[in-house]
Amino acid sequence: MDNFLHAALAEAKLGLAGGGIPIGSVIVHDGKIIGRGHNRRVQKGSAILHGEMDALENAGRLPAKIYRECTLYTTLSPCAMCSGAILLYGIPRVVIGENRSFMGEEELLRSRGVSVTVLDDPDCIRLMSDFIRSHPELWNEDIGE
Questions:
Q1: Contact at 8 Å (CB) between 71 and 91?
Q2: Residue 112: φ, ψ to 5°
């Protein structure tokens, strides 16, 4: 497994251990993680703290030039909100652990020139499928169904 995806998966597991939804993300610039996060909607009572949004928040305020040189790694295909943030900040590359549990806005990202790679990682797939099976109500709340 890619080291950066492994870091995103570690974030997802932190979220699960904290009673939340196991989706994690890291933002990488120049070979270093500059932001990491996990879905904390449950833990913080938040409407927007998905893994990608949490990683962006934890990266802090950065010049636009930095975002335009980053790669965002996420364990699950990014939703419309997170994809909008990726586009807003001009992040050019997204690496996705899996998109079987949820197909986000990959086509939108690609249509706007973002390089999208789906790794179909078995650990990411297992983590989400186990979670969805054991917590369908929380999963449905998070994805808006």
A1: yes
A2: -100, 15
Of 106, 136, 97, nearest to 12 by C-alpha is: 97
Name the residue with tokens 């927007």.
Answer: 48
Annotated catalytic residue within 11, 52, 105, 106: 52
Question: What span, in angstroms and rounded, lies between the C-alpha atoms of 85 and 9?
Answer: 20
Answer yes or no: pTM beyond 0.90. Answer: yes
Alpha helix (H) residue ranges in 32-121: 41-44, 51-59, 64-67, 80-89, 106-111
Residue type, 122: P
Question: Which tokens belong to 69?
Answer: 């040189």
52 has catalytic annotation: yes
Q: How many CB atoms lie within 10 A of CB 59?
A: 21
Cα three-residue angle 80-43-76, rounded to 5 degrees:
35
Q: Over the stretch 76-124, which tens digit does the pLDDT of each residue have?
A: 999 999 999 999 999 999 999 999 999 999 999 999 999 999 999 999 9
Token digits for 15? 């979220």
